## 1
Amino acid sequence: MAIARQLAAIPGHEVVLICRDEDKAARCAEAISRTTRNSYVRYELTDLSRRASIQALAQRWKGPLDVLINNAAIAPRRRLQTPEGIEMQFATNVLGYFWMIDDLTEHLRHGAGARIINVASYWAGGLDLGDLEFKTRPYNNDAAYRQSKQADRMLSVAFGRRLRPLGITVNACHPGDVNSALSHSLGFGGHQSADSGAETPVWLAVGETGGQCTGKYFEHQREVSCAFGRNPEAVEALYTACLSYRT
């Protein structure tokens, strides 16, 4: 909510929230609109763990899209699956980002120097390309989360290269150690406020750096070298693996 509120507070911005729960979405949009005095705040109902739901969003989207911020993340403490049989955390945290970018690219092409910001984390690692869904490894929500954030950083490199010719930049960032339901699910409380955590994603969305750089990773509004993105074979293998979930 903090990212959307900070963007809505900038004059001239229309903000669209992508949500699953309509009651929460309506309350959130109304609160942001009231607080920022921006009447151009609305929501779209979409389940980011399901490709068909994202495709439906893309099909009904009207007009250009200038900024896409992928921020959805879950960390269930037991292994869950989507109705399609995909492990839930991988489906939401990784494939959700992939599908949103893939299905909304045509709209982003018509934006004014469009940008994609993938909210990832410094808490990343342990990616197993042979077991992305924890089918053979024992499921652990912390391990699954770290893997998903590594994947988000790597996909930012993959899409950054592919979308550069279209004038679309793609970058990843760590939002900070925010005290949230997600952080508590992972076993740590987090010490930063939501507004503090929103600063780097919003900075990439509206500042010069986000429009000039692509395929990079940022922490605290500063570019940080990302070892995961420097392995082109693994980046392409992950992209290909995600591509297999398109059908």
## 2
Amino acid sequence: MAILEGGRIYPPGLPFPDIIHVEARDARSALWAMEEGLRCAALGAVVGELWGDPRALDFTATRRLAVAAERNGVAAWLVRFGATPNLSGARMRWRVTSAPSLANMFDPRAPGMAAWDAELFRARGVAPGRWAVVHDGEADHFHLVAAAGDRALAADAGERLSA
């Protein structure tokens, strides 16, 4: 269902030259494949996408993913579509939604750069916050724009995102 709703990952949009794509029939199989991938230090990252609130995705499963990622130095992203926030062993928890695109500098009636509303609602060692995130397609990077009074948090989160 995650592939039907969110589409497939777009490889040229990722900073990794090679991608192994695994499509699992259920959440339990997807979590197993993620954990096995996280145990392989040769991989740069593992991205898992799940739909809803599957029974297999409990605190123990998310904790296992976090530990495997930390132990082997492999980045892990678990993207959940149509889900409700619940207990998780994740070190950082984000809620990302689409936002209106910025104005086009050449034609005010045309869409500009893509934008999202990103909320860090739980993290160890970092205060929660909310940012407008804009993708600059020409320079191929993201800009974080902090709300007033959140400048230090924006700098800290920016460092964590770019690492």
## 3
Amino acid sequence: MIGIYRIKNLINGKCYYGSSKHIEKRLTRHKRELKNNTHINCILQRAWDKYGENNFSFEVVEECDISVILETEQKYLNLQPDYNIGIKSSGGDNLTKNPNKNNIVKKITESVKKRYDLMTDEEKKEKHSKPMETNPNWKDGISFSYCEICNKKISQGAKRCIEHIKYERNGINNPFFGKQHSEETKNKLSEIRLGKYSGEQNIPILIDNIEYRSAGEASKKLNIPMVTIRWRVISKNKKFDNYKYKN
């Protein structure tokens, strides 16, 4: 029989849902593991140990075609049954709702770190230099995407190119559309544009004996990149002795 089954606690109504291509065999396995105290689901096992075998029912709740079995199971998992640890019908999730989740994650992390620490330098080098598809970080050789509007090549993970992002931010698509800065904000922005910075950026600079309030102000007035000005200030090249911070 193919479909969805349920293990239900007759005392409190809590239950566990599962799916199988052979429900009868699967339920028999559940019973055997619960009786032997070897069931992988610790929540269900604890309930079984507390309430006893006679207070649980094993039943088929819905038969379905194998092609829709996971979709059908997900419908029941969405009810958030108390005894299910995994919340996805794809299976393999014994961690999401596990009461020992933190300890399990800690043990896995420590185990991985221990194995890595025991590796020789050559093994580490080989692991991190695997070519192409043998490297777990390799993304099929694709490092770019395409704009969903104009199909232009863009960085991987992006959805639209810069031109269309800018276009969307114009007019009503701009979250600031129809709004204005306060006078206080306008003054702050004006000061920033004039080179009034705080901290290390607010250090006066002398260039050709002309004082500028900061490298930013000098950059704007002389049309020289700010990073270039700072480099010249600290340079030991005699050519730039006319660039210096004001004492």
## 4
Amino acid sequence: MRRQTRPAAGRTIGTRLLTAQALVLVASISTAAAVAAIVGPPLFHQHLLETGHAENSPELAHIEMAYREANLVALGFAVIVAIACSLLVSWYLARRIQGPLSELAEAVADMAGGRYDVRLPATGAGPELDAVTTAFNTMAEQLEHTEDTRRRLLSDLGHEMRTPLSTVRAYLESIDDGVRVWDEETRDILHDQVARLSMLATDVADVSAAEEGRTTLDLETLDVGELLRSAVAASRTAYERAGVELVRNGPSRSCTIRADAHRLGQVLTNLLDNALHHSESGQAVTLAARINGPVVEVSVIDRGTGIPAEQLTHVFERFYRGDAARHHTGHGSGIGLTISKAIIEAHHGRITVESPGPGAGTKVTFAIPLT
């Protein structure tokens, strides 16, 4: 239930409208009365003389008295009508304006109390108030999205940190109890878990910025072929160590895009790293590019574990891992594709994942507009 936020007595917009109209009314009536009292009688008297009335005739005094009384009655009637119209207009305007403003004040109070799901209906009270309502709803949606992102990240972060922290704690307790000695194997395991925590912290910062639309791009003109060559060179050593062949195909001709070299390199590294960890020794991964109308499509194709059809719609979700990924527990934080999707969309592109099924490999493709 909304908290009622009522304006202080005597300071409502209706009261202020009525006060403002009353001031205008008083000024107008005072002006009319002054004109009628000062300018009117001499002019009327002069016209009576011009019609042939004697200067001091009883008829002239009676006519002028009738004129003054008529003016007074007309002015009094006009005052009554003006006051009634002022009250009516003030009431109408206050009803049209004060209601939406009161709802806005209540909604702001609710939002200050942590309720980011509050929305305001269209007021119909004019374009200005409708613009305020639209701006408020947009702000509320952004705040709600940011708050949801924060809550999910905290929940997911706690879940993802639990495994490496438990491993580190178990090994340290084993060393303290004398069950395990400090040797190279222990050092490597603890080092890997700490590295995993460090990578998780970096990934969480990146995905938080991406989901809140804070991904910044340093755009420059890039040659697609050179971008692919750099990505292959950066991943070559890891592929050779794993015994997986890395093949680069295309594009068929030179083409350029306006993009952030570092961010696209991050995407290609994520995709090639995923493909490597889901491939077996002796298999091959292909990094291919082709021009398709106004865009260039870059694909990373592996012949590895593949993805079941029911899991394809979830691969871009944060911290999501399919059945195959769960067998690679030491690999990644589960948000590489989430970050990649945000980066590609920031470049006004799109990214898709295809897989015939388990054991049939995976194809991840992103498209970027050509310059």
